[in-house]
């Protein structure tokens, strides 16, 4: 079985067919999906979905895109919900906006400190910001863990992330023709440090690129990792599922 460790099923793209999407995921071997919060509304929606669907779990956080309109004040109460398994999506994004970097760092560090306090893992967003994100986390080395979601840097940065105590999240882009750095990362990173994700509805793998992504398509990420590492599909699915259960404390291991 597979765990899709990062999906935005709490967005409007799934309002009308969430049950069908989850059924399709199970048909294709996905046993559990972690629904990712980004602001107050999506955090609440993630929890609602997790409460009403056994295979779903939730995270709550403030994504860097929402730091100008959302505070972290509501998070601590939500972390008491039974099926909340991580803090995030949080981090830094210097691709879309750079003039609020001070605010981004402030909100990010608040969530790091909340992770230290609650001992929950972090879902880290880094876009054009690995070094800045790394420097924010470095003072907390040994106190926090989590995943660098949708990893998009190079092998050296992957090693630095792992040295901090984090996993590497691999998504649909690993199937793209020009994903040279990501291929290098996967080939040269021990599978015990890798998680598989979709980032649904975004970043659909080949052959679905450009269409709505779904948890069912996690299988294409697993297949590509197996190909690159010269392992069997089952070996990759078993190990990444074990990694997900270990990091997020998802309960009984299913293989």
Describe the structure in brief.
By secondary structure, the chain is of the alpha/beta class.
Question: What's the arrangement of secondary structure elements?
Answer:
Blueprint: E1 2-7, H1 18-27, E2 30-35, H2 40-52, E3 56-60, H3 75-78, E4 84-93, H4 101-118, E5 122-127, H5 130-137, E6 146-148, H6 155-163, E7 166-170, H7 180-188, E8 194-196, H8 218-229, H9 233-248
Parallel strand pairs: 1-2, 2-3, 3-4, 4-5, 5-6, 6-7, 7-8
InterPro entries: DNase_TatD-rel_CS, Metal_Hydrolase, TatD-like, TatD/YcfH-like
GO cellular component, one term: cytosol
Protein name: TatD family hydrolase
Description:
The chain is built from nine helices and eight strands. It has helices spanning 18-27, 40-52, 75-78, 101-118, 130-137, 155-163, 180-188, 218-229, 233-248, and strands at residues 2-7, 30-35, 56-60, 84-93, 122-127, 146-148, 166-170, 194-196. By secondary structure, the protein is of the alpha/beta class. Helix content is 39%, strand content 17%. It has an eight-stranded parallel β-sheet, sandwiched between helices. The radius of gyration is 17 Å and the shape is globular. The model has no long low-confidence stretch (mean pLDDT 96).
């Amino acid at each position: 079985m597979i765990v899709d460790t990062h999906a935005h099923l709490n967005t409007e793209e799934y309002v009308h067919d969430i049950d069908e999407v989850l059924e399709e995921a199970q048909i294709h071997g996905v046993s559990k999906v972690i629904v990712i919060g980004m602001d107050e509304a999506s955090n609440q929606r993630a929890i609602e979905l997790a409460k009403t669907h056994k295979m779903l779990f939730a995270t709550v956080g403030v994504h860097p895109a929402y730091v100008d309109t959302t505070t972290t004040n509501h998070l601590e109460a939500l972390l008491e919900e039974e099926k909340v398994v991580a803090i995030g999506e949080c981090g830094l994004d210097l691709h879309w906006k750079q003039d609020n970097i001070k605010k981004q760092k402030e909100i990010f560090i608040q969530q790091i400190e909340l992770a230290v306090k609650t001992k929950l893992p972090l879902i880290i967003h880094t876009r054009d910001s690995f070094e800045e994100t790394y420097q924010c986390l470095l003072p907390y080395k040994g106190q926090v863990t989590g995943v660098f979601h949708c990893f998009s840097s190079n092998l050296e940065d992957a090693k630095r992330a792992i040295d901090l105590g984090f996993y590497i999240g691999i998504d649909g882009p690993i199937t793209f023709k020009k994903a040279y750095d990501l291929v290098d990362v996967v080939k040269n990173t021990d599978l015990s440090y890798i998680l598989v994700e979709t980032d649904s509805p975004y970043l659909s793998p080949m052959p679905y690129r450009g269409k709505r992504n779904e948890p069912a398509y996690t299988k294409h990420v697993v297949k590509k990792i197996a190909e690159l590492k010269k392992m069997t599909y089952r070996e990759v699915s078993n190990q990444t599922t074990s990694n997900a259960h270990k990091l997020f404390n998802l309960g009984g291991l299913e293989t």
